[in-house]
Design a protein that fits this description.
N-(1-d-carboxylethyl)-l-norvaline Dehydrogenase, domain 2, 4 domains, two-stranded antiparallel ribbon, 16 helices, 3% strand, globular
């Protein structure tokens, strides 16, 4: 848990959680740790440290929280936050005392971190590991990895995924920041060979990225596919001619439909055509302005009218808030003027 290293070096639970939430993740790492269970997080972290060594080093304060303080998180009522069925989650102030003693005993010079520094240390190491997955052939292409991060881990969709985020930030910039972090905090931040090579060649992960014949989901019937990675889903060797003909007819109909539908429709039909959504379409300046104004309006409304802690405690959004969002048009669909039904 890289965030606990930042915590023991001088930042706070609330600063780190707020920085990561502002980046776009659905919750901060310490809120997540409490929800999952500090004991589970600790055991996973120690397994990773045993397997990967310094690259996945567990912060000493994490050992302190679990082994000495016996904090478990939400399941026990106390972790990085205090939890009660009758009230909203609130920060566990005992953490401040634990941190003070730990830093003193280990002679840690307290540092001050900006929100961007917190985000860089938490996110860029993930970017680096993502490039390692490509480098080692664990994932075939950037789009697969980014979609998995968005759909599987809650990585903010508007950031496009880890590798799209890296492209947007500039790979040279990413490598520079990682190299600086490596000098300060160890080799776990050392940029991968793939990342360095792409930065040196002034390439990006998505520039000109096209799905190859080997990686693009095929729309041909299974028996026509030659790629060794594809397998025949239905064994027709023991079927009679009529049944085989029926299956072939179904495949032809399915193939025709897939070419006429979008990404969501294809996903529903059992295929995933990543080049239908990557790279994300660009916005015009007018569209960007309208979007920014709407986001600002919504944020202002929610700050004034929504008590997030109360919603978290009651698991209910007030009707007045929903009505306000409706009046802003957030539950509406824009229909082209030429549609008159």
């Amino acid at each position: 848990m890289k965030q606990t290293l930042i915590l023991q070096e001088g930042s706070s639970v609330l600063e780190i959680d707020e920085s990561i939430e502002q980046f776009g993740l659905p919750m901060g790492p310490f809120v997540l740790a409490d929800e999952v269970g500090i004991d589970i997080g600790f055991h996973v972290a120690t397994i990773l440290e045993k397997a990967y060594g310094e690259r996945m080093k567990v912060a000493g304060i994490f050992y302190q929280m679990f082994t000495e303080e016996k904090l478990l998180g939400k399941k026990s009522g106390a972790g990085f936050y205090q939890h009660s069925p009758k009230s909203a989650r609130r920060y566990n102030k005992n953490i401040d005392t634990i941190l003070t003693f730990y830093r003193s005993e280990n002679e840690i010079d307290v540092q001050i971190f900006t929100a961007q520094q917190i985000v860089d240390r938490c996110i860029l190491i993930m970017v680096n590991e993502a490039t390692r997955c490509l480098q080692e052939g664990i994932v075939k292409n950037p789009a697969y990895l980014d979609m998995a991060m968005i759909m599987g881990t809650g990585f903010p969709a508007f950031q496009g995924g880890l590798l799209k985020y890296a492209d947007n930030q500039g790979l040279t910039n990413i490598c520079t920041k990682l190299s600086q972090l490596a000098k300060q905090y160890g080799q776990r931040f050392q940029p991968t060979t793939l990342l360095l090579d792409k930065a040196q060649a002034q390439q990006t992960f998505y520039e000109g990225e096209k799905m190859t014949k080997q990686t693009q989901p095929s729309h041909e019937p299974d028996h026509k596919q030659s790629n060794k990675d594809n397998i025949t889903v239905i064994d027709t060797s023991k079927m009679n001619a009529d049944k085989v003909a029926s299956i072939n007819l179904t495949e032809v109909a399915r193939d025709s439909h897939l070419h006429q539908t979008g990404f969501a429709g294809q996903l529903f039909m059992g295929t995933c055509q990543m080049d239908a959504i990557f790279p994300f379409p660009t916005q015009s300046s007018d569209e960007q302005k309208v979007g920014d104004e709407l986001v600002a309006k919504v944020c202002d409304f929610l700050v004034k009218h929504l008590d997030a802690e109360q919603v978290d405690a009651t698991q209910t959004i007030p009707d007045s808030v929903i009505q306000g969002l409706i009046e802003m048009g957030l539950f509406a669909m824009k229909v082209p003027k030429n549609i008159t039904a």
